[in-house]
Specification:
Helix content is 53%, strand content 13%. It is built from 14 helices and nine strands. Helix 4 (84-91) runs parallel beside helix 6. The longest helix has 29 residues, at 182-210. The structure holds nicotinamide-adenine-dinucleotide (NAD). Residues 23-29, 46-49, 52, 67, 80-82, 86, 89-90, 111-112, 137-138, 140-141, 259, 262 line the site of nicotinamide-adenine-dinucleotide.
């Protein structure tokens, strides 16, 4: 009896193991793909960059010669690409993944891209008879490596149900944010709050210093008062007060200013498209453009205090 149960368990585990295509094996994609492989799935990957291909082979991932080859026998295909143009290029058109895949394939795009591109790809997927989810992440490379990412997912219920077991391998916090493109919408709206609030915290701590306030004393007051916010409590841009601050390690990221800049620009593109007024989001995007153009993209986003305080 015990033996039968064990056999049944092994069989159901084997049945739930899938062949997964993975496109984009960069800083984020490779550890995510590696976690899927570690969980027992067969992962077949492709990346345009030779270095990424080599790293993927070293991590035990089968690397194929062309993007379309990841489709062979795959039930699910995950993409983790730089931006909307790459995602549109890979998915759309007669040579795109959507046209070439067997009907009913589940596509999960984890890239952070503009909402309009995401919805365009979703619509094309539906037309082609494929299932599609947009599933941008937060948590960075450490979260990708540790399988602790947060996934913000947009798409139909049926697709979400099918994709959820894979998200649970690659992440810890999985939220279905609604229909097509809503994962991207949630990510950029959240990061717009973070960018604006980091600038507000930077302005207040810079002004406080000029007025003779000790930053630790001001933190003790404001962190328990109405000025408190997540950016202040977790990523305070002043060293020596909050343990998790990048300021304590010379603004080594963390969450790079270049990434914040990208997300704020995506938020502005979405706001323009939707006719939404986001004056502070626009200002935050402009300040991060200045900061990144001055060569600071590789610093943590909280280093924006250097620009605000005139300490660049
Ligand atoms: P990356 O540049 O390290 O990786 C992207 C990979 O895609 C590269 O290896 C590139 O060669 C490959 N690529 C580009 N076009 C391709 C194509 N047509 N076919 C196959 N491969 C192709 O970038 P990343 O840091 O891994 O980020 C990927 C996505 O995740 C981005 O959208 C980024 O905004 C988002 N993101 C990154 C982080 C982070 O901390 N790095 C955090 C959250 C979200």
């Amino acid at each position: 009896m015990v033996r039968n149960d064990t056999q049944k368990h092994v069989k159901s585990r084997e049945e739930s193991m899938a062949r997964i295509g993975f496109l984009g094996l960069g800083n984020m994609g490779l550890p995510m793909a590696a976690n899927l492989a570690k969980a027992g799935h067969t992962v077949v990957g492709f990346d345009l960059a030779q270095a990424a291909q080599q790293a993927a082979r070293a991590a035990g991932i089968e690397v194929v010669a062309a993007a379309a080859n990841v489709l062979d026998g795959a039930e699910t295909v995950v993409t983790m690409l730089p931006a909307g143009e790459h995602v549109r290029g890979v998915y759309l058109g007669t040579d795109g993944l959507l046209a070439k895949a067997a009907k009913g394939t589940l596509f999960i795009d984890c890239s952070t891209i503009d909402v309009a591109s995401s919805r365009e790809v979703h619509a094309a997927a539906e037309q082609a008879g494929q299932l599609m989810l947009d599933a941008p992440v937060s948590g960075g490379v450490a979260g990708a490596e540790g399988g602790t990412l947060t996934f913000m997912v947009g798409g139909a219920d049926a697709a979400f149900t099918k994709g959820k077991p894979l998200f649970e391998i690659m992440g810890r916090n999985i939220v279905h944010a609604g229909g097509p493109g809503n994962g991207q919408a949630a990510k950029i709206c959240n990061n717009m709050i973070l960018g604006i609030s980091m600038i507000a915290v930077s302005e207040a701590f810079s002004l406080g210093e000029k007025l003779g306030l000790d930053p630790k004393v001001f933190f003790d007051i404001s962190s328990k008062a109405s000025g408190s916010c997540w950016a202040m409590l977790n990523h305070l841009p002043v060293a020596g007060i909050v343990e998790t601050s990048a300021a304590n390690r010379g603004f080594k990221p963390g969450f790079a200013a270049a990434m914040m800049h990208k997300d704020l620009k995506l938020a502005q593109a979405a706001a323009n498209h939707a006719g939404a007024a986001t004056p502070l989001g626009a200002e935050a995007a402009a300040l991060y453009t200045l900061f990144v153009n001055a060569g600071n993209g590789g610093l943590d986003y909280s280093a924006i205090i250097r620009l605000i305080a005139g300490k660049e």
